[in-house]
């Protein structure tokens, strides 16, 4: 079976069938599992037998989902969480001690930034950011107590690309645990473990579900690290619900074909924007104009579904543009079948100062489009009429 292509493997691997010989995996909506007798129960709790005990620890639906993500990332093991943030938080909490230090890309998901700056300092865990456009500066900020090197690529919302091979080399040289949040790329487009990542995190809420329905998160990677994360999570309780796991496992079967189409549409949107007079700069990993185009080509199969562009006219033009959008949604989600438009400077990142925003590549006119699966001409027409309305 494992000689099959990944598309086949994730469609054809599933939980063992029940006596009903169902074709599609049923939903195991149960909080606990029963034991044959006292000895079975003892051996199960002693982990002498590998079996389901309680759905906070494991569940057939959750295991099926994790198994598919492990196949896609070529990872040894994994654990699934209720949300992407539960995955991020629990990974750090399980692996770090008071006094440890994190080196992270300066441009990370908003709530991850809040963990680094507001919550981890409570336990004397500190973080230093590096400039995503100068990863060669990483070595200057590594300290004797640095334990984790962390990054997302492509970044949100500026769509910068970070050289994963370089991160892998630095992590190895300094004996750091390299953790990559691979949410924007999905394992179909990019497999960070091949470049030296020890752990890969996903918010399954985004392209993995891909239809804006359920929240979920997952961490996969080295067996001994996953073991620590599993033990921490088994006791602290951030586990994914079996229902969401059942939805997500089915969604993974269509991930490759959906992501192919998302990328095909995104390239066309990016090319249209690049040809528009009202647009200053377009950032899309697979446009030759992208500053890290060569790196993107090296580590990604296609460019992803997120396009960032700079509207002429700053904050006001950005706001006018959002107001004129008709088809696309104004929403905080991304990676949905429906195209979504956001203007970070006036919304998600409005609490930061202009200087702080610029540090992570958010200029006043930056617009982020999560390109969906509608007919791409309709998406382009919507963007076109909204740009025209700015005047
Ligand atoms: C959305 C997102 C998260 C958080 O995931 P949730 O499922 O919303 O908790 C983490 N990292 C990145 C890059 C994201 O886009």
Automatic annotation (TrEMBL):
GO terms for biological process: 'de novo' L-methionine biosynthetic process; homocysteine biosynthetic process; transsulfuration. Pathway: Amino-acid biosynthesis; L-methionine biosynthesis via de novo pathway; L-homocysteine from O-succinyl-L-homoserine: step 1/1. Gene3D superfamilies: Aspartate Aminotransferase, domain 1, Type I PLP-dependent aspartate aminotransferase-like (Major domain). InterPro entries: Cys/Met-Metab_PyrdxlP-dep_enz, O-succ-hSer_sulfhydrylase, PyrdxlP-dep_Trfase, PyrdxlP-dep_Trfase_major, PyrdxlP-dep_Trfase_small. Keywords: Amino-acid biosynthesis, Lyase, Methionine biosynthesis, Pyridoxal phosphate, Transferase. The modification N6-(pyridoxal phosphate)lysine is found at residue 206. GO terms for molecular function: carbon-sulfur lyase activity; pyridoxal phosphate binding; transferase activity, transferring alkyl or aryl (other than methyl) groups. Its cofactor is pyridoxal 5'-phosphate. It catalyses: O-succinyl-L-homoserine + hydrogen sulfide = L-homocysteine + succinate. The keyword Lyase applies. Its EC number is 2.5.1.-. One of its GO terms (cellular component) is cytoplasm. The keyword Cytoplasm does not apply. It holds the Pfam family Cys_Met_Meta_PP. Catalyzes the formation of L-homocysteine from O-succinyl-L-homoserine (OSHS) and hydrogen sulfide. Homotetramer. Belongs to the trans-sulfuration enzymes family. MetZ subfamily. This is O-succinylhomoserine sulfhydrylase. It comes from Flavobacterium indicum (strain DSM 17447 / CIP 109464 / GPTSA100-9). The gene is metZ.
């Amino acid at each position: 079976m494992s000689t099959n292509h990944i598309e086949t493997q994730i469609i054809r691997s599933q939980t063992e069938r029940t006596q009903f010989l169902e074709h599609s995996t049923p939903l195991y909506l149960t909080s606990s599992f029963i034991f044959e007798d006292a000895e079975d129960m003892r051996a199960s709790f002693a982990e002498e037998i590998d079996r389901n005990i309680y759905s906070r620890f494991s569940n057939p639906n959750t295991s099926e989902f994790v198994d598919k993500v492990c196949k896609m990332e070529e990872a040894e093991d994994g654990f699934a969480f209720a949300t992407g943030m539960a995955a991020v938080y629990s990974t750090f909490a399980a692996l770090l001690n008071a006094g440890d230090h994190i080196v992270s890309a300066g441009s990370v998901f908003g709530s991850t930034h809040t963990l680094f700056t507001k919550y981890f300092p409570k336990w004397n865990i500190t973080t230093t950011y590096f400039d995503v456009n100068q990863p060669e500066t990483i070595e200057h900020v590594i300290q004797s107590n640095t334990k984790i090197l962390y990054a997302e690529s492509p970044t949100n919302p500026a769509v910068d690309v970070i050289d994963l091979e370089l991160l892998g080399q630095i992590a190895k040289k300094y004996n750091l645990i390299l953790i990559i949040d691979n949410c924007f790329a999905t394992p179909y487009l990019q497999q960070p473990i091949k470049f030296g990542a020890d752990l890969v995190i996903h918010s399954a809420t985004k392209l993995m579900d891909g239809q804006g329905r359920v929240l979920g998160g997952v961490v996969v990677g080295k067996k001994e690290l996953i073991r620590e994360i599993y033990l921490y999570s088994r006791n602290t309780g951030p586990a994914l619900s079996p229902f969401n796991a059942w939805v997500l496992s089915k969604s993974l079967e269509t991930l490759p074909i959906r992501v192919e189409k998302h990328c095909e549409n995104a390239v066309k949107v990016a090319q249209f924007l690049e040809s528009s007079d009202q647009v200053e700069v377009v950032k899309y990993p697979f446009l030759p104009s992208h500053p890290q185009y060569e790196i993107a080509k090296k580590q990604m199969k296609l460019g992803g579904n997120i396009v960032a562009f700079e509207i002429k006219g700053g904050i006001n033009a950005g706001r006018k543009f959002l107001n004129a959008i008709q088809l696309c949604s104004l929403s905080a989600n991304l990676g949905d079948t429906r195209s979504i438009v956001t203007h970070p400077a006036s919304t998600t990142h409005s609490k930061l100062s202009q200087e702080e925003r610029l540090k992570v590549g958010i200029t006043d006119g930056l617009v982020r489009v999560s390109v969906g699966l509608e007919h791409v001409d309709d998406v382009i027409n919507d963007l076109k009429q909204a740009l025209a309305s700015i005047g």
